[in-house]
Amino acid sequence: MLVTDGIHLIDGVKGAHSYLITGSHTFLVDTGMPGQEYKIIKYMNTIGLDPMLIEGIVLTHYDIDHVGSAVKLQNYFTCALYAHLLEIPFIIGQQKRYGIKRWLPTLTRPIFGRLNLPKEITPLKDGKIFGDWEVIPTPGHTPGHIALYRNGIAIVGDLFQGGEIRLAPNYFTWDKKMLKDSARSVTERSLRWILPGHGPATPASSHWLDTLKRTLNS
Ligand SMILES: [Zn+2]
């Protein structure tokens, strides 16, 4: 589904959303659960996009429902994977995920298959990637969570949930204070669209933005 400005929310991907960014640079943000690579490639065929145009895959954070199909897609596109430096040890399996997330790859394996661990990830620095997309470190949900921002559009991973935009739930939050600080750093910007990992892509509205800002300041 085309959302806006050449940004597609890929239909039918299980787990978190995978976004396809097209235009002067073509890349993916997040990859859903393991086993979703065919849906993502099929979607590109449907819209007539040459998969070989994919320049890279940005991972907002280490959760299995975001990184699940990253290795298969990386191999298919022969492109780089990108994530924040602090997140890389978790994604490649050097460091254990926190809390229940440690067990999710095992618990979900009978349904989705094995989580393949990437061997190489390029660290994202604060600043720009793929032209004018800004990398915003947004720790809180996980230590090295990032959001991408350009021209009023924020791709936020699990910083917010879509619909009535809210903070991600506490029980999956690594550091609540950091989550709020990160949310502030995004809501301070001029916003037209919030593209979350879960829930609908959401046009910015003063109604929920005001409510959210009140929550952040409480
Ligand atoms: Zn998450």
TrEMBL record:
Which segments constitute the Metallo-beta-lactamase domain? 15-198
**Alphabetic keyword roster:** Hydrolase
Gene3D superfamilies the record matches? Ribonuclease Z/Hydroxyacylglutathione hydrolase-like (3.60.15.10)
Is this entry keyworded Cell membrane?
no
MF GO annotations: hydrolase activity
Extract the Pfam families matched here.
Answer: Lactamase_B
Span-the-membrane segments of this chain are none
- The entry's protein name is Zn-dependent hydrolase, glyoxylase
